[in-house]
Amino acid sequence: MLSIKSIVTCILACLILQANLQAQNKVIYQTEAYTLYRDSVVQANFTGRALSSTQLTSNYKGRDKAGRYKETLATSWKLSKDISNFPHYHSDFPIVDAIYNLSLEEMQNAVEPDSTFRTGKSWKGVWTRDISYSIILSMAVLQPEVAMKSLMRKVKDGFIVQDTGTGGAYPVSSDRMIWAVAAWEIYKVTGDKGWLKNAYDIIKRSAVNDEVNLHNSKTGLVKGESSFLDWREQTYPRWMQPADIYESECLSTNAVHYRMYKVLADMAALFGDDKSANFYNKNASVIKKGINKYLWQEKKGYYGQYLYGRVHKTLSPRAETLGEALAVLFDIPPVSNQRKIIENIPTGVYGTPCIYPQIPEIPPYHNNAVWPFVESYWALAAAKAGNESSVLKSLSAIYRAGGLFLTNKENFVSSTGDFGGTEVNSSNMLWSLSGNIAIIYKVLFGISYNTDNLSFTPFIPKALSGKHLLKAFKYRDAELDISISGYGHTIAKVTLDGKPLPAATIPASLSGKHSINITLSNYFAPSKINTLPAYTSLPNPQVRYNNNTLSWEPILGAQRYQIFKNGSSVAEVVKPSYAIAAGNSEYQIIAIDKNSIGSFTSEPVLVAAARPATILQVEDYTEKSSLPHVGYSGKGFVNTDTKENTNIKMNVDVALAGWYTMDVRYANGNGPINTGNTCAIRTIVLNGQFAGVVVLPHRGKGQWSNWGFSNSLRVKLRKGINQLSIQLKSTNTNMNIDVNQAMIDYVRLLPAL
Prior knowledge:
- The protein has 753 residues and is α+β, with helices and mostly antiparallel strands.
- The chain has 15 helices and 47 strands.
- The radius of gyration is 27 Å and the shape is globular.
- The termini are far apart.
């Protein structure tokens, strides 16, 4: 434990250091926790300083998970690679220049000998989402050939590969379509028609499967885990199984699929296929409508993270920064709501956390963490919305991390600003360094690639007012020296080789060396942000049902409990119990604290009426398996894989016509619950018509006697005999392709709730 004398000494040293720095340098951004100066950053008794554009020093010491200080990083960085082939950036702010050059150096470290991107110093290999988000930020600009090769590494049998993840990944995880946005960015940068044709065919084929496996015709949204937030406990309640996560309808993943359809529409238009372009634009409009109808929160002024539940879904009101940023960048909300989102999203002292509020009893990684690449997307969105305060906050958060850590870290703890204490981390992280570079190109210089031109919409916060120069910036056959003076986001004057440049746009046909000079208006409209302290919601109740009463243990800190019946709020109570009437219903409970912040919902409790479930023992319709698994019901179970029982046919006899909920009791021991690529997928056909898709995700490596339920489908049965079949179709191909297997115990049907 530090003595009082040591603490006082540290504080005095910090104050003296800050006073000296403030006397010498311009303050860019200041909070109670840290100050970013023109050439340094100070936090408590930690400093990071730029000696020049090619040198940085820091005496920063990270904390270990126990909270003790320890030396974890080098104390200095000096440029050691040749970066002369890349655009040169110069400004009046040495720390910004130095971190840009550090990022260029780390970018070269992130290229493997086979000319594909390495995800991070600690993460070898190519990951679809990591490389795609990085390519969109800046790697398409700086390393288009490596970007193309990396994207093609994530194509198998002509389909985009979903990374391994929850429950055997696809379609539980379904954000692979960010590949399409990255491929489109490469085309806009290079104009390579051969690349365009190849990418178009791959995206089209992948979209067909997603339309079958993911689309919810009721909401217009697609299903699947939040994009990039792929560690289930970090962003979902613990009761949710992989099948439940598949059923969630998330902001970020839907934003990605919306943009994918817009990309397909633009590609089709370039090929003169207006019919396909109209089809893809229509699909995009359906998703956009669903996002704005089901995920928008008018009172909060931003979107909720996802719809979740089982038979009936509710909206999780948590803010999800990447999804909100993508929604703004892709023009999903109207302009007025774009501004609201940037103003209202909760941000912290050290940056904008991935989600807000935080989840209790979950260590920092996605929970209670800032990811610099997400902060970069947030800065891009804030610039688009014209919010100077938000842009400056994001830039400062990114430069503080770079200046103190002397590397582009994967993430850091939102509540402390320290990378120490995170569950997993890496230096030299591809998407973090890509975001750092994008700050220069896409925010400060406002460079935007279009199909046939390059445009400029610079955004220079007043605190960064001065001269900004980007030399030897290559655009197709042109090399540009670009200078900006002043501040603001409105151009007062722009010239190309000394002559006025209409619309601040240059054509793709431009060749040779040219100079562009931009003068800004020196004006910003007033702006605001929603800075809040770190906040953790309550744990969700664990609900029991007995004798027409729901009950649960009291939640410490709960002021009241909100009761949901079939997805709608029906009551609030103070005591931890609630009497219910008989009938087919699904109930969930939320604990609400003194600040009216709610927990996750409890696991749904299904209360069935007197009418019993219809159980179809699958072994009654086809040969049962001889495998030695236990825990099944009836006389046995059935194995289904790519060769055996690919079309299981059954008859369903019901006394009453109407809507029913259907699910499958199954086991899948092909992999662990949190990773892998062998989630089983099957199509349900009812009376000759497509009725939906059931997913049968991993339930644990080798856990073939661990039985659980698939997602639920809402199906319409006619009175009497109905023909139902469980089929493996080509559209049900998973990412493993060869292994698509599960054990099926029975099919369950209940009158619809």
